[in-house]
Structure formats: structure tokens, C-alpha cells
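lol ok so funny story. i was supposed to be doing the assay writeup but got distracted and ended up predicting the structure for this chain instead. priorities right. anyway since i did it might as well share w the group, maybe its usefull for someone
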Amino acid sequence: MTTSRVPKPVRNYKELLRSVLDNRPSGTRQRLAVALGTNRSFVSQISSPSYRVAIPTHHIDTILEVCHFSPAEKAEFLAAYDVAHPNQRQQSDNSPGHRTIQMTVPDLGNARANRLMDEALHDMVRNIIRILQEK
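and the output, tada:
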């Protein structure tokens, strides 16, 4: 499928996502696939401007979190997504709200280990939520 068949607004936000993914550590695409409950080929499709597959609105928050978008990247991505899919995110905002909890966990002594633990905890919570929503 050629990019000429993919609408320009969709290509725009996919190019932004691909750029963010290309600048993240190895394994980010796999972590994103796991967090979305999909496989890596789906992540490739939603991040490639060559594919018409749109990013489902309910995946946006997970993508922003797992890929660690900077505030500027997030603003640019959401603006491009809203141009491509007007009113989609506003409609999904009517879904049940979120709440924040705090946890106290040990400091593992280095930034990488702490980040890996934080990501593992986030992944676990997302997986539990997905399982509960399927019931």
C-alpha cells in the first residue's frame, strides 16, 4: 500500500509516532505491543505512514505513557490526531474516569533499575485492567 492512499492527516500523526519510537530505547515497540494487548506487527502498522490502519482512540493514553512522549511531542501528536479524527478523543472522554493511587517501593539504587521496576508495575496494572474489562 502506498502512502498516497493514506490521508495526509493520518500520515502526519503516524510519522510523529514513528519518530518518537525511533528515538526510544530498543524494546519500546515490544513493550508497547504488550501494553496494548497486541503484537508487534500491529505497532508497526499504527506507526507506519504506509498503512491506513488508524490508531484506535482507546490506545492513545497507553501509547503516550509507554513511549514517554515529551510535553511538546504529546501536544504535537494529539493536535495531529485530532485533525485526522475530529471529535474522536472527546467522545472517548465520556468513558469511566481514572483515579490515581500512590505506592511506596524500594529505591533499587540506580535509575535504570528503578525505571524498569516502574515500567513493570505499570504494565502489570494495565494487564489487570484489560483482564477485568474483558469480563
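The chain is about 60% helix and 0% strand. The chain has a mean pLDDT of 85.
back to the writeup now i swear
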